[in-house]
């Protein structure tokens, strides 16, 4: 199921993992997130055991809230 969160006026951008606000790994799983607005993160997640394995979504969590969520599900945050 897809959900629409009002994200408007996103600038042209090139997303590189080295510039992500969050870089997290758990084995071969990864999550990268970039802050694109106040309390909005653009997230790219790859978890081969899930279907679909690669997802892109917008979260309404702050960077710190998302890091805490990822830690709770055993992701290692890379600083």
Plain-language structure description:
With 79 residues, the chain is mainly beta. It has one domain. 13% of the residues lie in helices and 37% in strands. The chain has one helix spanning 63-72; strands at residues 22-26, 29-37, 40-46, 54-59, 76-77. A hairpin with a 2-residue loop joins strand 1 and strand 2 (29-37). The longest helix is centred in the last third of the chain and has 10 residues, at 63-72. The radius of gyration is 12 Å and the shape is globular. The mean pLDDT is 86.
**What is the molecular shape?**
globular
Give helix % range: 10-25%
Taking the sheet with the most strands, its summary is:
5 strands, antiparallel
Our count of helices gives 1
Number of strands: 5
Strand content: 35-45%
Alpha-carbon distance between the two ends: 32 Å
Number of domains: 1
Structural class: mainly beta
Strands side by side in the biggest sheet: 4-3-2-1-5
Q: What is the typical, i.e. mean, pLDDT?
A: 86
Task: Report the order of strands and helices.
Answer: EEEEHE
Radius of gyration: 12 Å
Which blocks of ≥5 consecutive residues have pLDDT under 50? Answer: none
Short description:
The chain is mainly beta. It has one helix at 63-72, and strands at 22-26, 29-37, 40-46, 54-59, 76-77.
Helix and strand topology:
Blueprint: E1 22-26, E2 29-37, E3 40-46, E4 54-59, H1 63-72, E5 76-77
């Amino acid at each position: 199921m897809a959900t629409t969160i009002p994200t408007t006026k996103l600038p042209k951008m090139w997303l590189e993992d080295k510039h992500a606000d969050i870089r997290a790994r758990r084995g071969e799983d990864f999550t990268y997130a970039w802050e694109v607005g106040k309390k909005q993160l653009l997230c790219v997640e790859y978890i081969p055991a899930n279907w679909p394995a690669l997802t892109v979504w917008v979260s309404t969590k702050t960077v710190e809230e998302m890091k805490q969520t990822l830690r709770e599900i055993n992701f290692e945050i890379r600083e």
